[in-house]
Specification:
Sortase_Class_E, Sortase, Chain: A, Sortase_E, about 240 residues, single chain, eight-stranded mixed barrel, alpha+beta
Length: about 240
């Protein structure tokens, strides 16, 4: 085989490999984002249709514990709410720091296929507004990049959850914290490392770190600051 043929064959092989790499990058950066946006929009539409068919009766505020003393006391016990359905949406989340149009559905569990459609609720952690730790995971990159701007979170930022009856406004307690994937204490009822020292109504957000890797996790913690019935309109952080 001549040197010229070897060089030409090698060049063609490099072009082929390069093309495949480009196509793979396009798939990761573009196509998964398109699919995720469509899926998330469908989940939100599904929620809105479901909420439109049910009475808008907000759940009574939970116990006044932790750093939210302005909220009213817990009512007498009532029937336990129905469990969330695996892989199905039950709320939407808004984070004004990430842009006025930032809205993603929150679905039950953190399986890979669930996180391709929105944010995932750590099964077994608290519901929105309940005493305990409402913990939610989301992709930093790919599948719509919902938590791309995660490092921009700052103390006092609002994280607002709507379950169809109530707006729950949480406040970020401190800047994102870097840890390892095995640090399960980050989603404990009183999350370890958060600075919270007693039971309260908390929110934990998690995503991958570094931006294009998964060797670590970024964690942001928040506490419940206010609740507002949906019938009264959006909370000030979404209208101001």
């Amino acid at each position: 085989m001549s040197v010229r043929l070897v060089v030409r064959t090698f060049s063609e092989l490099c072009i082929t490999v390069g093309t495949l790499i480009v196509l793979f990058v396009v798939h990761i950066l573009f196509w998964t984002g398109v699919k995720a946006a469509d899926a998330a929009e469908g989940e939100i539409d599904s929620l809105h249709s479901q909420w439109a068919r049910q009475p808008v009766t907000p759940a009574p505020p939970p116990a006044s514990t932790g750093p939210s003393p302005s909220l009213s006391a817990e009512p007498s016990p009532s029937a336990a709410p129905a469990p969330y359905r695996a892989g199905k949406p039950f709320a939407t989340m808004h984070i004004p720091r990430f842009g006025s149009g930032w809205e993603w559905p929150v679905l039950e569990n953190t399986e890979a296929r669930t996180l391709q459609k929105g944010l995932g609720h750590y099964s077994g952690t608290a519901r929105p507004g309940d005493t305990g730790n409402f913990a939610v995971a989301g992709h930093r990159r790919t599948y719509g990049d919902p938590f791309k701007d995660f490092p921009k979170l700052r103390p006092g930022d609002a994280v607002i959850v709507n379950d169809g009856t109530t707006w729950f406004t949480y406040r970020i307690a401190k800047e994102p914290y870097r840890t390892v994937p095995t640090d399960t204490g980050a989603v404990d009822p009183v999350p370890r490392g958060s600075g919270f020292e007693e039971p309260g109504r908390y929110l934990t957000l998690t995503t991958c770190e570094p931006e294009w890797g998964s060797s670590h996790r970024l964690i942001a913690w928040a506490h419940l600051d206010a609740t507002r019935p949906v019938a009264e309109g959006k909370p000030p952080d979404l209208t101001g």
